[in-house]
Amino acid sequence: MGGGCREGAQAIFLSTFVMIGQNRQSDFQQAKADHDFTEQELELKTNTELTREIHTLTTEPARSAAG
Predict the structure, then answer these.
(1) Scanning 21, 50, 59, 65, which has the fewest C-beta atoms within 10 Å of its C-beta?
(2) What is the DSSP letter of 67?
(3) Distance (Å, rounded) from C-alpha 60 to C-alpha 66?
(4) Kindly report the CA angle at 40 between 37 and 44, in degrees rounded to 5?
(5) Per-residue pLDDT for the chain (67 aa), expressed as one digit of tens each?
(6) pTM of the predicted protein model
(7) How far is CA 10 from CA 3, 50, 51, in A?
(8) Cα(49)–Cα(56) distance, rounded to whole angstroms?
(9) Neighbours of 18 (CB within 10 A)
């Protein structure tokens, strides 16, 4: 009967380390996802600004020529 308790204790001990490892992996994945989201938002903002500037630059000469 004592052997079963020892095996149960070992299983609990090992499962604790597995859960800690999974939690760390989850934290890492969340941090990476947050970073990637922030970078994509910045890239979208930059691309939008560039598109607006290109639009302005390409429509101004047409307005000047028409006027």
Answers:
(1) 65
(2) -
(3) 10
(4) 140
(5) 456 889 999 999 999 999 999 999 999 999 999 999 999 999 999 999 999 999 999 998 766 666 6
(6) 0.62
(7) 11, 60, 61
(8) 11
(9) 9
